[in-house]
## 1
Amino acid sequence: MKFSIVLSTQPAQFQAATFKGDLESNMARIASYGYAGVELAIRDPSLVNLKQLADLTTKFDLKVPAIGTGQAWGEEGLSFTDPDPKVRRAAITRIKDHIPLAEEFNAIIIIGLIRGVVKKGIETSQAMTWLVDALKECCNAASVHGVRLALEPINHYETTLINTTEQGLELVEEVGEGNFGLLLDTFHMNIEESVMETAIRSGGERIFHFHVADSNRWHPGAGHLDFKQLLKSLTSIGYEGWVSGEFLPLPDVDTAAQQGLAYLKIATL
Amino acid sequence: MKFSIVLSTQPAQFQAATFKGDLESNMARIASYGYAGVELAIRDPSLVNLKQLADLTTKFDLKVPAIGTGQAWGEEGLSFTDPDPKVRRAAITRIKDHIPLAEEFNAIIIIGLIRGVVKKGIETSQAMTWLVDALKECCNAASVHGVRLALEPINHYETTLINTTEQGLELVEEVGEGNFGLLLDTFHMNIEESVMETAIRSGGERIFHFHVADSNRWHPGAGHLDFKQLLKSLTSIGYEGWVSGEFLPLPDVDTAAQQGLAYLKIATL
């Protein structure tokens, strides 16, 4: 099983961006702890030095399995389902802007909170239409470059759109693009899924990426989720993607990163 | 073990008020399903006909273990920690207004969302001071009537004040009144507690009341919580209070009430 961990390429408000700040020292520690990959959380790819990133990942022999895009929502309010067509267009443009970087690293583009929420006065059906249209456009632009997109079901406290694997799979069906799938996250699944292992099995080959955090959003091992069973379910469906740590940097980022990976490795035995 | 279920005495926005509306038909069904008690969610006790309530609970042989007060926050914005002293005073008065009803039924007064959240521009330490002062005042007024208050740790998406049992116990210590304790809720514990059974054991005799909902806030049995272990932990600390169902009325209120109780009864075997 291949393990990575989230690193924000700039200071970020999002609390569960495990590592933040200086790229070189963070990547050095991530690699030294035994992670094989680093998932990059990027608000705006135009602010990222692609050459520097490529050099650093080569230096530390780290893959980049996925790119998180949620900060464009959290810090700029961009979303696929905003009532303002200019905001929707900016969100679509932003996701397309990630394609060159994703192609360079063979990374999946994550559609998390940038999908937005159903805003007041907007019908859910209208928001879903905007969402599907935006995803189709982005998937089409990405497929030319062999890039895949993965939408993350997120618990209902954070979004009103797509909370469960079942809803995610219906969306995948509706979007109908081969390069569109899901990212499942154990923290959100704990709140939303009746049986988490069943959700994983139902996701099957449409699971493009996988996030781990324990029930309290701390590193695996700090809460009460059964990672042995969860990873076993992933193996049982022939999952060949990455297992990526997106958890709170508590008690501190280095302890969380090390203890989380140690726990996951034991869980795979 | 004594089981009850939440009934809102008036139409309510709160989704997890399992039963809502007509008192007589709801109490008849609650009793017929085998519950021994009904937890009343009351926004404003001045709108409740105490005589009618007493007659109905006698008719259906139902106890009233606790009174929920959160609707005064959800629908009127009353809270112990509002920056406006008039709002804080109204919240304290409202809780005191519940005392006669609580005394009549030997019911616990629940302090849920009426504690409020830390509002913008307010220091957490200031909010905590307001909270402690309000609780002391309410506890003193209630103790004369032999009435107890129980504060519910609530997950961090719903409030910024008191999310865990540990924080709740610190507050109990600070308030320092013998008639003040905690209400633990399995839905919130699943999100906040590292190990739920450990939290229950740490709560010990300060657990005055207990709410059950499964991980997805549906009735017990619909999610992935281990109620056998949870109820065993309650028994192990000598808990003699009620186990009260506060869950979503899904797929419909009657199915949820019946399946939830059946599942809990099996879990106690």
## 2
Amino acid sequence: MSNIPESLSNKTIAVLGGTGPQGRGLARRFAAAGLPVVIGSRDANRATEIAATLVEPGYGTVTGADNPTAAQAGDIVVVAVPWDGHGELLKTLAAELAGKVVVDCVNPLGFDQHGAYALDVEEGSAAQQAQGILAESIVVCAFHNVSAVSLAAPGSAPVDTDVLVLGDVREATDLVQDLCGVIPGVRGVYGGRLRNAHQVEALTANLISANRRYRAHAGMRITDI
Amino acid sequence: MSNIPESLSNKTIAVLGGTGPQGRGLARRFAAAGLPVVIGSRDANRATEIAATLVEPGYGTVTGADNPTAAQAGDIVVVAVPWDGHGELLKTLAAELAGKVVVDCVNPLGFDQHGAYALDVEEGSAAQQAQGILAESIVVCAFHNVSAVSLAAPGSAPVDTDVLVLGDVREATDLVQDLCGVIPGVRGVYGGRLRNAHQVEALTANLISANRRYRAHAGMRITDI
């Protein structure tokens, strides 16, 4: 049924913000790989409704819950909420997330008539803000530059991108690289410590600019690795 | 002798900081494509000495000069100097660079026992600092993430990377994309406006982290374009 690596066996993946485009896409792909997934939302009923749309026959399960319940249920918790409200949400979930690997995918971006641009973040990056709030969790930064459109393709369709995985704890970045690898075509590549997260989050603005110019859904591959 | 595009015919490329690893590599590759190149340095004698080592038989010319003379000679001027002193140098060359396309390749990085990290730049990025100083020039940002080691391979050896080209003037970014394309294997991809330059400069820290982890000379390809 699946080719999930040993490191992820029996692990439940929670996706906070799992009703948004990026969260939905990741949840569906994780489930398609055979992993049990729970998506979180402010509204548990909406999460349950969306969850039902993300399961492909014969694959893993997707259930919906409010954010605290989802955070509690996840062994690995992916944070795919909008930047606006990111810190406030995490403050309310510190207890549920304690002792867990938290994967922050949030891109602090602004938009105007010239397109996307990176926002200044007081803590340096969304990932560093998360680590500052979640002192008892291990924060890893990943999945920033994965096209939600590509994720929305059928579960078996490869996504042509590498994912830069950043963090300060090797065991956690290795685990998240394994999680990247369950999505067909995707490869997790170690990309440094959390202090270098800002530019990976912000690079999404450049890919959005390229998407506008070339009418594409750009991803990226790291060469020579 | 060469396959240089029409947009670059009869164009001289100046490389300021042309005696450093990145500058040397770019100068040699541009010359190998058949373009006339002049490298600049504080020390004209050193520039001349290094220039003599960069010419491959049958290709373009490389000459050396002090930085003002090189800046004056170039139709397109590549800035590959160290970040330390970047602004001070450009302030002295505003007259020579007026009316020209200036290609900033500078990565404002710091290094400590944990590796490389992005420095805060008051103007946002090296490229924006350059544009602020060079009001009469058109600044484009490119060539940040090209491995100097790969550039140092023989002129015909392909370099497996795309180059993100950023700028606010379409004609200038198109021209610099053409310049990227004269290096075998390299493709220039439009990556947005100068306000999004910081993260492209800073991403070099992530590639350095990956290089340390994987013992590689990482580059990057933008997918779906």
## 3
Amino acid sequence: MRTIVVICTGGTIEKVYSEQSGRVENLDGKIDGYLRMLRLPETRVVTVRLMNKDSLEMTDADRETVLETVREHAAGGTPMVITHGTDTMTETGLYLRDRLEGLRAPVVLTGAMTPLGFERSDGLQNLTESLLAAKILAPGVWLAMHNEVFPIDKVRKDRELARFVWK
Amino acid sequence: MRTIVVICTGGTIEKVYSEQSGRVENLDGKIDGYLRMLRLPETRVVTVRLMNKDSLEMTDADRETVLETVREHAAGGTPMVITHGTDTMTETGLYLRDRLEGLRAPVVLTGAMTPLGFERSDGLQNLTESLLAAKILAPGVWLAMHNEVFPIDKVRKDRELARFVWK
Amino acid sequence: MRTIVVICTGGTIEKVYSEQSGRVENLDGKIDGYLRMLRLPETRVVTVRLMNKDSLEMTDADRETVLETVREHAAGGTPMVITHGTDTMTETGLYLRDRLEGLRAPVVLTGAMTPLGFERSDGLQNLTESLLAAKILAPGVWLAMHNEVFPIDKVRKDRELARFVWK
Amino acid sequence: MRTIVVICTGGTIEKVYSEQSGRVENLDGKIDGYLRMLRLPETRVVTVRLMNKDSLEMTDADRETVLETVREHAAGGTPMVITHGTDTMTETGLYLRDRLEGLRAPVVLTGAMTPLGFERSDGLQNLTESLLAAKILAPGVWLAMHNEVFPIDKVRKDRELARFVWK
């Protein structure tokens, strides 16, 4: 039985449709609910909710909070998944990598182009992939989406294609 | 084998999530795709696409277009379903009722609070109900949603509750 | 607020896939769980579990139990839906019709060709339709499936087509 | 752009519910349809259909056919996923391992406890995981399911738990 810590920060993957506003918004956390749809008999998943924000609104203070949480769990070698908005996912990833020396566990950033539970969503695919990546990748900061694993300094978002590409 | 004409005008029921804008928008028609998920062996469904608009943007010219289409099919006694945004659904319904004398077929307005294919959507339920209502209701203009059938002059939208209520 | 009683007897609509046996079986009731996926704000649904059987195994004693339950609720004019296996659905329906004189509420039999929650299932469509049919049909014994409502003496199952047809 | 070959042999993951027999059977291939639900922009997936069998019916001649297909693609270093029934998945895996010397690519066996598209199915999760595992694991024969990756000689099926466990 291995432990994986899932750090939730918001982003498109967790957005919900508001019937009152007609917009998609970060109102309630969705990660726990969708994790229950996966079978994880050999894995203890611990979710940590830090914030629930569109990643365009993330500040350096928010990134510092993420960093502290990662540091805390990395000390014991626990693999981590961070769910995050795609617009500044690489920014947060590089922020972490620059401040985490001698990292002893993989830290895998993931998110979605379409919210969990919406038709054609990539959210559950990315969550599934990042949990497996957290188990088998070497220590380091990674981004996992759409059946691809990128070292955090080799990846950028292509907005028109609505996906991440190698840089 | 009975024919039902489904007149598509847009509204929340047909909205899609745009990965480029992060908003839900009326970009592509969705009714045909979701009708294929229903079993309708004794029914010939003919869909007519008139427009794909948020109902707050519907004009009287749009309503006139709907009216003409309804008149055309009502002449032969063909039951009709109209998919429509909820914000002005009753307005369009009353517009039709006031101009359709001696209606010989049921005209059933429906829509959704959450777009088809989004988690917890009521779209397919409402589509299913309105197709059955079109088969068994008496001639007249009706609104069918959430297991309730309202004569068009007895119903109003309650925005906070996100549903229609008797008036 | 109207009450509808849903009487559950089993059948394909409630079958589940057993990972131990590799077969689909009537193990746990499914109707309540799927009813929660529908929006029924103006309706009080009361489910009554009588049995959970493949309808080929239903006996006349089982039909008598159904009859007693229907009688009890029909006295107050409460509409009813009966979920039932398709193989003997018409047999049970005729059994009820022959023994219910002066019926004051609609009794709507329904079921499914593929269990609720399996890909391409017709279960939720049929459940949705039968709940609406229960609200708007005249008193009598009916069968509602696949956007069609049949008087119970005018319908038979076509096994090859996997649906009900007019007789 | 990397290529992954997906070799389809049947098993529970591909079973469908037959409305005529009321049983789940290996009638039509399902892997291609479900692969289309995943986003694989950096991956070229080539599916190869060898058979569509319950794995209890697989013969050594069938395993020889799988072996030949694996050999053909392994020569070029192409990672492979094999979808397979769970009852004899380890048997096929060991058969391959014993006959593949100097394997230059990962070969990942996967399957499902509940067929793709049935409620609570683990099929899409396992397919997602095995495709990622095929990209990042070292050469060798592996089994990937339920967020766990096992070397083929360290795993056995636990029928009561309906999952694979370490041995």
## 4
Amino acid sequence: MQNQKPYYAVIFTSTQTEDIVGYSEMANQMETLAKTQKGYLGIESARNSVGITVSYWESLEAIKQWKQNSEHLFAQQRGREQWYNWYKVRICRVEREYEFEK
Amino acid sequence: MQNQKPYYAVIFTSTQTEDIVGYSEMANQMETLAKTQKGYLGIESARNSVGITVSYWESLEAIKQWKQNSEHLFAQQRGREQWYNWYKVRICRVEREYEFEK
């Protein structure tokens, strides 16, 4: 994930219902699919009481295309119907970054 | 966390060492301290193989002040010495957001 150009992050925060049948399969499937999308840069995910998935993209256009991907649209709909009590999506422009490695 | 004005997110992604003695106490302490800072808007956190903490701020200036807070500086140093193998910090401008609630 090297970059000089500005890039974008989508912060997806969610809480789940008790019915998570099929959820982890779909999550894996969507992660695999995201990686094939134009402008995809990376993804990071963790879940405890709240789930946070951050995906990184080259442009707002790439984010829009991914949002409108037909398989992804189906997953989003099933998410609202079945898996999620609540979610929030924030589209962000990464202004600056730094890293530490031991 | 209502807002009309643009605001900022700090995405802190990390992997830990095996020596996490004192980590969760410090994490709680820093979360409590962050909440008292000027310009603080909210925080969300989850950890599995990777930890993701996203904090939200009114301005870049508020983020800078929080980064330079003396207790926080001490925690950052101890983090690099003891708890973290790797971390990455991304300062982001939230461009757009939407929410779903069941």
